[in-house]
Design goal:
This protein has nine helices and no strands.
C-alpha cells in the first residue's frame, strides 16, 4: 500500500485535481488507484513465483531467493503447520542452497498451502473493488476508456 499503490493513487488524484475534477471524483480516483495498485503488486508477487519467464520478462523465483516478504511468503508463514513452517524457515535460512532447489521447494510449500489460489483471490478482490470505484466516477466516455485501457495493461500482464 505504501509503495506501488500509493504512487498510482497519488498520480490519479493529482491528475484529477489538475483537471478540475470534483473533490468526490478525485477521492474516488485515489481509492481506485490504491486498489489497482494493490492488485498490481500482488500480481507481480504472484508472477514472480508462478509466471512464465518468457512472457513475464524477469527470472522466476527472484523474491524467493531474496527471502522477500511478499504476500505469498507472509501468508505461507501464517497458514503453515509448525512442521511446514519449520521446513519453510529452513529453506529461508539456507545460505548455500542451489537456487533452483530453493525455488522448487518453497513453491511446493506454497502449493501445499494453496497460496496460489489465495493470492489470485486477493488480486481479484482488489480489482473488483477498483472497478466498483471506477463505476462511481463521473468521467466522459473518452477519459473512462483511456483509464480502463491503462488499467487493463497493468492487470492483464502475461503469465
Amino acid at each position: 500500500r505504501l509503495k506501488t499503490a500509493v504512487l498510482i493513487a497519488c498520480a490519479l488524484k493529482s491528475g484529477a485535481i489538475m483537471a478540475d475534477a470534483s473533490a468526490k471524483d478525485a477521492e474516488t480516483l485515489y481509492r481506485f488507484g490504491i486498489n489497482i495498485g494493490l492488485a498490481f503488486q500482488l500480481q507481480d508477487d504472484w508472477l514472480d513465483v508462478y509466471g512464465d519467464t518468457k512472457t513475464f520478462g524477469k527470472k522466476i523465483g527472484g523474491d524467493i531467493l531474496c527471502n522477500k516478504k511478499t504476500f505469498l511468503l507472509v501468508n505461507a508463514m501464517k497458514l503453515a503447520s509448525p512442521t511446514v513452517k519449520a521446513e519453510l524457515m529452513e529453506w529461508l535460512s539456507k545460505e548455500d542452497a542451489v537456487d533452483e532447489e530453493k525455488i522448487k521447494a518453497v513453491t511446493a510449500i506454497y502449493d501445499k498451502l494453496k497460496i496460489n489460489e489465495l493470492t489470485k483471490g486477493r488480486i481479484r478482490m482488489f480489482y473488483d473493488e477498483a472497478m466498483l470505484n471506477f463505476s462511481q466516477l463521473s468521467l466522459p466516455d473518452e477519459q473512462a476508456s483511456v483509464l480502463l485501457d491503462v488499467t487493463g495493461k497493468l492487470i492483464n500482464r502475461q503469465v
